[in-house]
Amino acid sequence: MNNPIRFIDPDGMNADWYEHKNENGSTSVLWKPGNAEQVSVMGETYNRTGETYTQNVGSDASITYNQNDAVELTVNVLSPSDWKSQRTDDGTGNKPGDEGNCFYQSGEMVKASGAESLIGTANNISDKNEGDNYINNQVDQGNSVRVHVDRDNNQTGDHWITISSRTTDLKTQAVKSFGFYDPGTSKSASGTQISNSLDTKSLTGVTFYSGKTYTVTEVRKNKKK
Length: 225
Description:
Elements (H helix, E strand, L loop, with lengths): L14 E7 L5 E7 L4 E4 L2 E7 L1 E6 L3 E6 L2 E8 L25 H11 L11 E2 L2 H13 L5 E5 L8 E11 L5 E7 L6 H4 L5 E3 L4 E3 L6 E8 L5
């Protein structure tokens, strides 16, 4: 705030993030001591958003702050416009032909990242650590990956999803989770929801649109460039 005498917060615990929507559609953001619902800065009203803030860095990455500490980095290999659905627009059934198949639509999303997901079960990775490492390798190259998941808790893959992002803990440099896009819903907001993520410790996550637990059973390799 350019006033270190007036605005002082020794332990960093009594502060929050605030946003102001500008007339041109952009957003101004600041981190400020206090937790008032609104503050006025240079005649502009800023609304409190909380202790955390996520800053987009172009379309390919974002940084999440807790208070004023950068704690997470998310790298995106897909954008919401890349999402594909196997469902009809009204959500009453699957689309006809290949477009109604989750395997096909997941492959189409991989193509949107600039990669090509292979066919044939010989290209599946069933070992958890090997699959984890393969996803990381592909994300490093900017590629998405097609992933087989068990959603009925019977240890058998029964649905295909597509890796969309990777989130790293900036304190430890450890990968925390992989985001995914889900073709099994007719709604883009559900299929690309940020909460659709797989914990890297178990490669398990819960989907936003159905609340089902997804556990990765296989990772499908991409064609080598």
